[in-house]
Amino acid sequence: MTKPKIAFYWCASCGGCEEAVVDLGEGLLAVVELVEVAFWPVALDFKRQDVEALDDGELAAAFINGAVRTSEQEEMARLLRRKSAAVVAFGSCAVSGGVPGLANLYESRDILDLVYREAPSLQNAEGTLPAEESHVPEGELRLPSFGASVCTLDQVIDVDYYLPGCPPPTGLIASAVTALVDGKLPPKGAVLAPDVALCSECPRATTKPDKLLVQAFRRPHQALIDPDLCLLAQGLICLGPATRAGCAAACPGGNMPCTGCMGPTSNVIDYGAKALSAIASVLDADDEDEIAARVAEIADPVGTFYRYSLPASLLHRRVRPATEEKEEAAP
Amino acid sequence: MSENHFQPKIVAFFCTWCTYTAADLTGISRLTYAPNVRAIRLMCSGRLDPQFVLAAFRHGADGVLIGGCHPGDCHYQQGNYKARRRVELLRAVLRDLGVEDQRLRIEWISASEGEKVQRVCNEMTEELRGLGPLRLEHPQRQAVEPAGAGEAR
């Protein structure tokens, strides 16, 4: 019997998800026993043509990490979708946009200007910007186009399963691969992680007070963090109560608050809204000015509550004021 | 007057004990107010999930109004304070996402303040008329699907 074929691919991502696969360690050998890796640009020398040569649906599964912004990422996602029986959105960026998704706070034009024209470390006297087409003596060069906003994988292609995390915990990766090989797959659309809040597996949960009230929020560098006590009770913005379990509370275990990479549990549509709701609820302030003062102390509210999920949120991106929109109207 | 005929849509979440009762009083008192407001009754302003606000915006609301009991008067003791904290934090997030402060308003309106419902609804409608519609973008890719791009090479 031939082994099922799988593919790994990366879009807008940092490479940490690939690292998580390698983190399986010797477990990776067991995976390779069970499946044939048909495509994995970061580790193996297969090319796009090798994927194109496959029959439609020939891949048992494609694990795609990273958010989608460029036309190249979009094309590869569509190609892998066509060639795969199942597509797994792998990691927070593919699931909900991830850290690259925070680029949706800015316009693509402003990002290119900053990176290629304004950054103080630049030497670009001609103000050259990447162009989709450029003509050189040798001929014409082409680059992928830079999309107007960062999208999650399922905003571009149909996704069968979601494996959240930044990166996904190795235990969940191993059980996802095993389930695929054994054909013991959950219903389409399932998130391959437990459907309970992180507090349920946090070693500090026993010290969480029944009535949790916080006078003021602190950032990790502003506090000497008690290694055993509930982080929220210490005034740190720990998003554990709003976040899905599955990572064995790796960050609270390392004396850092949860930032929410596993995303919400299944009943939540908008992670950031739910997370800010949880944090607002524990703030011990009733007076309007006092509340405003405490809220003003939260640095970067969008980056705090939507660190991994701005493209997946109900608003998707920063709203363009009507005046800016007119300038951008021409496609 | 201006020639601005834009009709903003406002979704209002009113608590059943104070503001919703006040809105009833507005009607009983034969006071008219802008028909741009669609009221939804909650048991308490503390029931307001910030997701409700974002979902309203996503589904076409240009503004969201929240009405609860005056501080100290909550039927459930603490609900309106909870709403106040959530709205303040949500506003901080919305500001960074380019949504103007005036699109999210919270007001304390007791059951006897029918005329305040009228005033607040009219004020907010006019304010949003000046501000214009909230234009949210859909997350779908705008790029044309590269049909057969895979086979091209």
- When the domains of chain A are counted, the total is 3
Measure the end-to-end span of chain A.
Answer: 51 Å
Please name the CATH architecture of chain B. 3-Layer(aba) Sandwich
Helix run count of chain A:
12
The topology string of helices and strands of chain B comes to EHEHEHEHH
Oligomer: heterodimer
Output the CATH class name of chain B: Alpha Beta
What is the terminal-to-terminal distance of chain B? 61 Å
Percentage of residues in strands of chain A: 5-15%
**Architecture of the largest domain in chain A, CATH level 2?**
3-Layer(aba) Sandwich
- Helix-strand topology string of chain A: EHHEHEEHEHHEEEEHHHHHH
What's the shape of chain A?
A: globular
Characterize the structure shown:
The complex is a heterodimer of chains A (331) and B (153). In chain A, strands 2-1-3-5-9 form a five-stranded parallel beta sheet, with helices on both faces. In chain A, strands 4-8 form a two-stranded antiparallel sheet. Chain A has helices spanning 16-22, 27-34, 48-52, 71-83, 92-96, 108-118, 170-182, 250-253, 271-282, 288-296, 301-305, 322-328; strands spanning 5-10, 36-39, 59-65, 68-70, 84-90, 133-136, 139-142, 146-151, 161-163. Helices cover 30% and strands 13% of the residues of chain A. Chain A folds into three domains: 5-100 and 148-182, NADH:ubiquinone oxidoreductase-like, 20kDa subunit (Rossmann fold), CATH 3.40.50; 108-146, no CATH class; 198-299, no CATH class. Chain A has 331 residues and is of the alpha/beta class. Chain B has a single domain, classed as Rossmann fold. Chain B is built from five helices and four strands. Chain B has helices spanning 19-28, 50-58, 79-96, 114-131, 149-152; strands spanning 10-15, 37-42, 63-68, 104-108. Chain B is globular. Residues 142-153 of chain B have low confidence and may be disordered. Classes of the chains: A alpha/beta (331), B alpha/beta (153). Chains A and B meet through helix 3, helix 4, strand 8, helix 9 and helix 10 of A and helix 2, helix 3 and helix 5 of B.
